[in-house]
Amino acid sequence: MAQQRALAAGGILILRDEDLDPERSQQHFRQAMLEDLRWLGLQWQEGPDVGGTFAPYTQSQRHVLYQDAWRRLQAAGWLYPCRCSRKDLALAMQAPHDDEGIYPGTCRPAIALLGEVDTPTGANWRFRVPQGEVVEFVDGHFGPQRFVAGRDFGDFLVWWRDNLPSYQLAVVVDDAAMRVTEVVRGADLLKSTARQILLARALGLPSPDWYHCDLLLDQRGQRLAKRHDALSLRALREQGKQPQEVLSFFTQEANFPPPSPKNDVRK
Q: Which of 112, 124, 227, 242 is buried most deeply by CB count within 10 Å?
């Protein structure tokens, strides 16, 4: 459990409502999330329902911070607008479902654009990765990791044309602002970690330590996703399952490693 690991590391557990997708971030979903996590036994010390030193803990209320980060990146020449549609990118990259793929550079300018635009509104904005730069970090579970910008991933989106920051940018800004020192998350985000390290470097922000867990798989070896509603916490509660039954089931199925001091915590 994350909270035992957080306490073992001498830190606290933070709940952050990452509600940047308007379609999935309705109030009844938010309330269900809080209720189900408390039912499971999680007890966070800071969060949208309890407050804390670095409130607000709801990303839709932190837009000013993300826009400030966008301006800093744009002024330094790290960003450029991208006119490519999702369909264009899918045809160009043949990207797998769970990865953004390597952007072919269709809209990448020959030279960096230094602070030529004041607002991100109305365009998709990509981070101009330093081609060939090696990003290395040691994961608490998988050990040493090494990715090469431009080979393992390309220029990635940090801002959407509907004036919303990307997940990549928002979590980098929030982890630094909330002084998060250790992050635990799924193995499918290993490559995203390399992208986020580059963003943190460009913004002059520290990066936390990382611990990526094995993914929970179904009987066919496919990772569980939101479409697997039968295994959602709410569905299991309605079936009469008890918290310890659920924890035991998921721990066995995922073959989680034993607790370590790597957490979404602040020391």
A: 124
